[in-house]
Amino acid sequence: MRAKALRKVPTDAESLLWRHLRNRQFQGLKFRRQHPIGKYYADFACLEIGLVIELDGGQHGEQMAYDARREAAMKALGFQTLRFWNHEVLGQTDAVLEKILATAAALTPTLSRKRERGQDKD
């Protein structure tokens, strides 16, 4: 129920990034929004490659220890975490998407080969 409630009130940055990640339109990868992983909820998660994307607002500056524990717990479950500030997503969307693409390619050998051959769609 908490995931559903979180999905109902996304931040502007979450809404913008979701428009790029939803419906397998980003490299054919299936992302989920506010997906539970262990006892935490990932802002965005791609289960098939083990990637979590977290978006941080100003409050995250004060909760670095919590974020470190959360990231370690997700890593123990096989997930790599990418973390972006909301203002990065809003002001540098293309750079954020490139970083996600590079990380996804590193986690997915077939995605890397597809891109090398120039067959990617993005």
Please describe what this structure looks like.
With 122 residues, this protein is an alpha+beta fold. The chain has a single domain, classed as Endonuclease, Chain A (3-Layer(aba) Sandwich). The chain contains 6 helices and 4 strands. It has helices at 2-8, 12-21, 64-76, 86-91, 93-107, 109-116; strands spanning 32-37, 40-46, 51-56, 80-85. A 4-stranded mixed beta sheet has the order 1-2-3-4, sandwiched between helices. β2 and β3 form a beta hairpin.
Strand and helix layout:
Layout (H helix, E strand, L loop, with lengths): L1 H7 L3 H10 L10 E6 L2 E7 L4 E6 L7 H13 L3 E6 H6 L1 H15 L1 H8 L6
Parallel strand pairs: 3-4
Antiparallel strand pairs: 1-2, 2-3
Helix pairs in contact: 5-6
